[in-house]
Amino acid sequence: MERKEFRELISVEDAKKLIEQIKVQPETITLAIEKAVGQIIADDIPSGVDVPAFNRSIKDGYAIRAKETYQASEPEPRKLRCIGSIPAGCADKFFVDEEEVIEISTGAPIPDGADAVIMVENTKQTEDSVLIYQAVHIGENIMRAGSDIMKGERVLRKNTRISSREIGVLASIGMNEVPVKRLLVGIISTGTELIKPGEALELCKIYDANSYAIAAAIEECGGTPRIYGIVHDDEQLMEEALEKAIEECDIVLTSGSTSAGAGDIMYKIIEQKGETLTHGIAIKPGKPVVIGMIKNVPTIGLPGNPTSALSIFNVFVAPIIYNSLGIKPSFKTKLTAVMGTGIRSGGREELFPVGVVRGKVYPADKTSGAITTLSDADGTIEIRAHTEYIEAGSEVVVSMFGNVRSPDIMLVGGQCPGIDLLEDMTGLVFRTLNMGSSAGFTAISSGTTDIACVNMVDAEGNYNSSTISKMNLENIALVKGYRRELGLIFAPAKHVYGLEEISKLKLINRNRGSGTRAILERELGTLAEAKGITKSELIKGIEGYNSGSKTHRSVCDAVKSGKADIGFGIRVAAEEAGLEFIPVTEDEFDFVIQKDLLEIKEIQIFLSALRSEEFSKRLPPGMNTYEMTGKVISFF
Ligand code: AMP
Ligand code: MG
Hints:
- With 636 residues, this protein is α+β, with helices and mostly antiparallel strands.
- Helices cover 25% and strands 28% of the residues.
- It is built from 15 helices and 36 strands.
- Strand 28, helix 7 and strand 29 form a beta-alpha-beta unit.
- The structure holds adenosine monophosphate and magnesium ion.
- Magnesium ion binds at residues 191, 233, 256-257, 259-260, 304.
């Protein structure tokens, strides 16, 4: 471990230069066209046939000699003899002479003698003859052999990514297989704490996200992933897994276990068997990024945290795959946008996770900087070491996480199923950060959200307006939402009669900053008064008062699992969890919206859904709209 201190990290620029030089030779394999979507074509594809292979009719009508029609008109139709009919796929020989026509279907071969097709709409059939009402010219409604694709013509180019269109082309020239490039990229996820998704989550374990996220990212780049699964933090096992992967793959990636010394293990194996290219990159979160070459197989160690792993993959691994395949990304991997808020940086080079909402970039690191899931980030921006502050409004380039659809509206604050309903009804994509009402107010005041979802009560029982005044929030509108029944949540076996009993039971409280927690506190104040004690005396006697569950659902989970006896939250959460519910009070769940945004399309759609009858009808039990729903109260 000591050795680590002496290792020299290379700069981001040098790391990028190094990456540019790494190129591996993909293999060419033949794939059935049904399996080829997303793959990269390995060779130019010439057509072995004419498409179509014969002259064919493109309309239903009559095959005819054009000159027979030159005199035909609406008032004076030409009358010709119909001598037969040619359906599509018919290979029989026919001949059309002067004064004759043959009925023909779309796609059927043009008979000898004929040089045009007149559409059925411009004719009228009588017993054995046909009236022609319009003139046609030579070649009309005929598709000539080879007019679509000529034999020998290059129909698809090497290095094209195969989509439905390419598969259609291949099939129409009769190919059922296609040569594609195969660049096999192995992934080893390391960590004793990892469990395969789909299996039961054991205590203190987490699901392995990286194997699958990185595999998908490899596929998005046109590579072929091979997942080697989870390897525990054990030098021997890691070494074995690495050796196997290096034997089989063109590129090998590992993720995680940097603290357990995976970096060291890789470094050691690379030193022994190959060549070390870096001992790490001087970037957060890239320090553990070891890059080496073993038997001509680039071997790269990614960080464990999924957001970090994907960020580093995008910036340092994806280019190797694209270069090796000789292609460019098939979707926009970089987006130029402007900062929606200022961000301070730690004075070192950093890949900073961000969300992109309507072209504006926001920090996606919740508040702590510790992102562990990818659901709130759309990509990363690179912050230079000498940059101390990026101002709101400055242009930045975002490296996107895959082909993501970035959200239409950003909401921060309390969690509520009513918000999910609004998302379903509007058809918009919401980025919802469930962090409690206080965080909602903070975010709206710093301009980092479009909407704050809040239920913060004051001592008088007023919702949200006094917080707005206290915080001196300007240029915002308070849009009244709906009412929600709040009450005690407990298991059916427990016999709870009311709030008075809370001191006898173990409580799972909501997180600090949650409006629902503030409402409970207010109710407890009233109860204390009735009992003739102070609120803090009452609270002191409640076991678990200092706990902090982030959502209504997680409160129910704690009650259900027996970790707590009682919780406080909305009725629908209790009902969904099969728990008992006793109503205590009603809150007002409101939306604080940036005033400048009231007129934009997305917010208009949001507001009209909120005000709709459908919304009122579809709200779950215990939640109701009222006369104030959707009313706007402006603050300056
Ligand atoms: P490490 O680099 O091993 O210290 O990992 C950093 C963090 O990422 C730890 O919280 C790990 O539990 C987590 N982590 C590591 N590998 C994975 C993975 N494959 N999927 C999800 N999280 C991971
Ligand atoms: Mg680990």
